[in-house]
Amino acid sequence: MPEPQIFKQNQIININENVMRRLSIEKAIDLSKKKWIIGYMDPKGKSNRRSNYNAANNVYEGIMESCRELKIQVKEPHWIELDNEADMEALEEEIQFYMTGTG
Amino acid sequence: MLVMVLGNESLYDKHKQLYKLYQIPSQVVTARNGAKFNLSKASNVLKQMNSKMGGDLFNLKLPEKMNSMKTMLVGIDVCHSGGNSIVGFAASVNKELSQYYSDFIVQKKGQEVVQAQMKESIKAALDVFAKNHKNVLPTDIIIYRDGVSAAERSQVIQKEV
Fold it and tell me: What's this model's pTM, rounded to 2 decimal places?
């Protein structure tokens, strides 16, 4: 079969894996204010649980940089910090808090 | 969109169930992946987020004769590597073939031909398609069916189509 073709800025481009990797997004989402949340665990006090703060911060920085490259509008996320990521009730409360607009 | 950085990967299902309950599109990144989150990983994750939130990664150039049609593109394949055989199912739900409904079916190990459950997946995909097209169903359905040997072809036509 021939290579697939896509429309991009009124041009037709033949697609392969390398071209695909460099493509900007056709219809980009909006991650501006109140549109996205990052959640992670950071246990308080003495705990055997490991903090995911550094990983979450890496994810945040990577997404912010990628957004700029892929021309996606982005603003600061809402952050959810959990004492224990297995505590689903606490997470649910945080989600409700965010959704009711008080977060 | 909720991006959750998760240390304990076994909590994945519980987290996903909660996000589904609140109808929040979500992206789970394991803390292991997050620790080495380079630009290439970030770009891949962001593209997945873009799709989950209804954005399009690209628009295909479709043959002109398809302009007047409302085509649904379906892809089906079966993976036999685990304890069961898993059917992967994806169906386009917009005219541009850029948004997809997806589902999976668990069946007996080694079984290639998908039986009755296929009907439910197709029906759910058609419902989403109709919802996106003012209750109009596709005019045409193209099915890509991978992994079928010549001997199984007649069975697939009889039982799946």
Answer: 0.74
DSSP string, A66-103: HHHHTT-EE-PPEEEEES-TT-HHHHHHHHHHHHTT--
Domain region containing A92: 28-99
Which CATH number, 2.60.40.10, 3.30.300.30, 3.30.420.10, 3.40.50.1970, labels domain B64-159? 3.30.420.10
Enumerate chain B positions whose Cβ falls within 8 A of a Cβ in A. 1-8, 11, 14-15, 18, 22, 24, 29, 31-39, 41-43, 45-47, 49-50, 53-61, 98
ipTM of the complex: 0.83
Radius of gyration of chain B (CA): 18
Please give the C-alpha separations between residue A66 and each of A22, A34, A103, B47, in angstroms, as whole numbers.
Answer: 12, 19, 26, 10
Q: pLDDT tens digit string along A16-38?
A: 888 877 777 888 888 876 689 99
